[in-house]
Amino acid sequence: MALVDRSSDGKETTRVLVALVENKPGVLTRVASLFRRRNFNIESLTVGHTDSPDISRMTIVVDATKTNAAMVERNLYKMVNIIDVQDVTQSPAVMRDLALIKVKIDGQTRFEVMQLIDVYRAKVVDICSDSMIVEVTGPEAKVNSLVDMLRPYGIIEMVRTGLVAMVRGSGYWSGMPPENGNGSPVETEPDIVSLGM
Amino acid sequence: MKRTGAQIVWESMMREGVAVVFGYPGGAIMPVYDALLDYPVHHVLVRHEENAAFAADGYARASGRVGVCLATSGPGATNLLTGLADAMMDSAPVVAITGQVASSLVGSDAFQETDVTGVTLPVTKHNYLVTRVEELAGVMKEAFHIARSGRPGPVLVDVCKDVQFASTDFDYDAIQVRLPGYRPVMRGTEEQIEEAVALINASQRPIILAGHGIILSGAHDELQSLAEKAHIPISTTLLGIGTIPESHPLNLRMMGMHGEAYVNQAVQAADLILALGMRFDDRVTGTLRTYAQNAQVIHVDIDPAEIGKNVVADIGIVGDAKNVLAQLLPRVEYQERADWFAQIDEWRQDTTRRDILNREEDASLHVPFVIDQIRRSINGSGQVTIVSDVGQHQMWAAQYFRHERRNRFFTSGGLGSMGCGLPMAVGASFARPDEEVWVIAGDGGFQMSLPELATVAQERLPIKIAVMRNGYLGMVRQWQELLLGKRYSGVAISSPDFVKVAEAYGILGMRASEKSQVAEVIAEARSHPGPTLIDFVVEQEANVYPMVEPGKALHEMLRRPLA
Ligand SMILES: Cc1cc2nc3c(=O)[nH]c(=O)nc-3n(C[C@H](O)[C@H](O)[C@H](O)COP(=O)(O)OP(=O)(O)OC[C@H]3O[C@@H](n4cnc5c(N)ncnc54)[C@H](O)[C@@H]3O)c2cc1C
Ligand SMILES: Cc1ncc(C[n+]2csc(CCOP(=O)(O)OP(=O)(O)O)c2C)c(N)n1
Ligand SMILES: [Mg+2]
After folding, report:
1. Cα(A192)–Cα(B313) distance, rounded to whole angstroms?
2. What are phi and psi of A69, to 5 degrees?
3. Is B444 in the pocket of ligand 2 (CB under 6 A)?
4. CA dist., res. B315 & res. A159, Å (int)
5. Residue limits of CATH 3.40.50.970 in chain B
6. Between chain A and chain B, how many beta carbons pairs sit less than 8 Å apart?
7. Same fold, A1-90 and A94-164
8. What is the number of other CB atoms lying within 10 angstroms of the CB of residue B330?
């Protein structure tokens, strides 16, 4: 028997899970409580609406060097209010992080900063004589890189949303199990592969 | 038809087949208690809410049905916690109903308000706060469904007081339970089964580790058939006792910290572990660094989060044990494995001489002797359910009783909560009214739930209570003796005169302090129609052997010192 590895398999330092959850009070508490109770290391967690008012969507970035993402996935799967969960790290997925960065400027640096922002296809959303707010969207690496470039000018304040992700292609992921017509609970056979087994 | 929230609580329970509940009333649950008078449900008044949860837990384990407990808001609900945590750890199907302050007051620190769904979140499988009467019936239906299906566990329903008063239309059968995120996986995939069968058929030194999941799944027959057909020895966990008769030639008996040495040797030498409905608790594995290093592991569990949690599974099969065993059964083949069985037998001879069968046979009264006498008495006549508290006596009850019948041994395994014995027996006694129920408790744990003697007396439950009075919190004392150089700290415990205590409660009390008295008091207790308590004054500093010290490897067991 091999020893259980508390980190994830593979080379990634982070893993991205997407979960569809019932839009009910307390679901976020349950998820947060699970992470604390199981000692899972999470980099970011974002929650937002979907096209269905009953369903919210979470994107969870797991610190794969400390936490086994498959265990996070299995624990999420068994929670009553979590409809489905997928590890999209290896999937062809669009992953985006949004940051607002308030950076110092003066007469000399204003132009330089604007040029930098252009290269990153970021936007200036607010500007005063001695600072501006930059909005950038993109994969985390791109956002990190812009942050690094802006740091020498002096970052006054920054906020990032954390990653959101969606698999490419026309597939629609509702996560909903088939119904058996009479509304009684159905026992379905979920995709075991998606549980990392 | 229109019903109040309070009525809906009972109407729902009637439809779920609930005939007995364990509880304690208070302000926030008074409407429910008032409505109770109109329903044929028997309410058992416990003496502390923790014991209501333990009793519901014991009822659930003994009946295989959902056990129900009731408490008021605030202190009533927080008192439930230990019992709920116990049901959570040991996968017992329990529904807890608690009263909550009126929905308009929630969040205002109202009198006896506690965030009960918050407090119980980590110790329940799921929980609900009901703030609208229209939701109540659906929540009740979901709660029972969740508690008993998949991996069973406790579900708490916190009902605001105004909801209990309010009325709405009620039609239980028409309620559609829609739980899109709750889909227990029930059987293995073809690929998993094929791979598992190949490993089983090729193995030279396989061992089955049978756990509580076999009992919860009702897979006893399938387990025995598979072991016999493929010719594989079985070891059980503490909570797996009762999955297969202890006298069955393939049953090696309990593994782990206080399992027999030859069983642990077999685990360490095995080339294949077939783990069925057990979760590789650290009391089972010892240090993981050296656990079963020669073995490939097939792990069958209904809970996906158990696969790969403590032990890497070469093949993880998420599914109900009964289904998965039925999938495996037709394909496994008989193998002689003569060398393997001969090797185990050789180890067994040595153990038999040393550790468990070789009890201390000096003049003083030892707990194993008492347990053995109870077993002998009962094997002569009748059936018995043994409920054990937590400590040395618990391990001796596991080692020496030798359970032949299914599901006759209940105890707090994962939480190891002292005080569980008597209240769990109260629950078991309601589940098995025609069966003799024995409690084996230590002088420490017994005093934690001693007030439940009043419940036993009030309900006239013919429970037989054996208190092993060694004057110590024995299990902790044993660790202090063996691991901390006999520096006894906080473990000496005095007790009242239990015979007088019993009598004060109207219960027949007896005492035995000599070996020669044991058979007689047991016989007398068994022939007495009502509850009895026997105070066994036992050897003070006896130890449970063998023992895997915490953090040590399974094969480095501390054996019984040779005389
Ligand atoms: C003082 C003390 C000493 C102890 N010493 C030992 C010891 O020496 N040896 C020992 O074994 N234990 C010992 N224990 C008990 C130990 O702590 C655990 O409680 C025990 O090992 C758990 O057994 P289990 O895994 O079979 O049961 P559980 O903990 O109840 O786990 C059951 C497993 O079965 C799964 N399951 C549930 N339903 C199904 C189903 N339908 N199909 C398939 N799977 C299902 C669950 O998901 C779970 O993983 C000791 C406890 C105490 C207090
Ligand atoms: C509620 C609780 N508190 C503390 C413990 C730690 N503990 C485990 S066994 C034990 C001693 C039990 O003593 P006793 O009931 O007298 O049984 P004995 O070991 O002497 O047979 C203690 C204190 C526990 N398991 N549960
Ligand atoms: Mg004691």
Report:
1. 15
2. -60, -30
3. yes
4. 44
5. 2-174, 356-537
6. 98
7. yes
8. 8
pLDDT given for residue B9 in this prediction: 98
| Interchain contact, A192 vs B185, CB within 8 Å | yes
**Residue B112 appears among annotated catalytic residues:** yes
Token readout for B203 is: 């193995």
Residue A191: band (very low, low, confident or very high) from pLDDT cuts 50, 70, 90: very low
Catalytic residue among B418, B424, B475, B557: B475
Which residue among B145, B182, B305 sits closest to A74, beta carbon to beta carbon? Answer: B305
In chain A, where are the structural domains located? 1-90, 94-164
CA of B449 to the centre of ligand 2 (A): 13
Chain A: nearest CA to B185, how far in angstroms?
A: 6
**Cα dihedral angle (A173, A176, A180, A184), rounded to 10 degrees?**
180
pLDDT digits (tens, 9 = 90+) for A45-67: 999 999 999 999 999 999 999 99
CB A43 within 8 Å of CB A10: no
Residue extent(s) of CATH 3.40.50.1220 domains in chain B: 190-350
- List residues of chain A with CB under 8 Å from any CB of chain B: 1-5, 21-22, 25-26, 29-30, 33, 37, 68, 70-71, 74-75, 77-84, 175-177, 182-190, 192, 195, 197
Determine, for residues A184 and B181 on separate chains, whether the beta-carbon distance falls below 8 Å: no
Angstrom distance (rounded) from CA B342 to CA B531: 47
Confidence band, pLDDT 50/70/90 cuts, at residue A8: confident
d(CA B320, CA A188): 13
Q: Are the C-beta atoms of residues B113 and B73 closer than 8 Å to each other?
A: yes
Mutate to test the interface with B, among A33, A79, A80 (most CBs of B within 10 A): A80
Q: What is the pTM of this model?
A: 0.95
Substitution target from B178, B324, B327, B555 for chain A, most A beta carbons within 10 A? B178
For A25, half-sphere exposure in the C-beta direction (CA atoms, 13 angstrom radius) is: 7
The whole-angstrom separation of Cα B257 and Cα B89 is: 18
Mean pLDDT computed over A58-78:
96
Count CB neighbours of B486 within 10 A.
10
CATH superfamily, domain at B356-537: Thiamin diphosphate (ThDP)-binding fold, Pyr/PP domains (3.40.50.970)
Q: Per the CB < 8 Å rule, is A192 touching B288?
A: no
Backbone φ and ψ of A51, nearest 5°: -75, -15
* B514, B494 Cβ separation under 8 angstroms: no
* A175-188 average pLDDT score: 45
Q: Is B168 helix (H, G, I), strand (E, B) or coil?
A: strand
Cα–ligand 2 centroid distance for B441 (angstroms): 10
From ligand 1's centre to the CA of B298, what distance in Å? 17
* CATH class for the region spanning B190-350: alpha beta
Whether the per-residue pLDDT at A195 is higher than 70: the answer is: no
Q: What is the DSSP string of B76-123?
A: HHHHTHHHHHHHHHTT--EEEEEEE--GGGTTS--TT---HHHHHGGG
The low-confidence residues of chain B, meaning pLDDT below 70, are 352-360, 380-382, 563
Residues of A in contact with B117 (CB under 8 A): 26
Contact residues on chain B for A82, CB-CB shorter than 8 A: 181
According to CATH, what is the number of the domain A94-164? 3.30.70.1150
Please give the average per-residue pLDDT across A123-148, as a whole number: 96
User: Which CATH topology does A1-90 take?
Assistant: Alpha-Beta Plaits (3.30.70)
DSSP state of B74: T
Which CATH number is associated with domain B2-174?
Answer: 3.40.50.970
pLDDT at B354: 67
Q: What is the pLDDT of residues B99-123, one digit of tens each?
A: 999 999 999 999 999 999 999 999 9
CA B53/CA B544 separation, integer angstroms? 29
Q: Is there a contact between B182 and A185 if contact means CB atoms under 8 Å apart?
A: yes
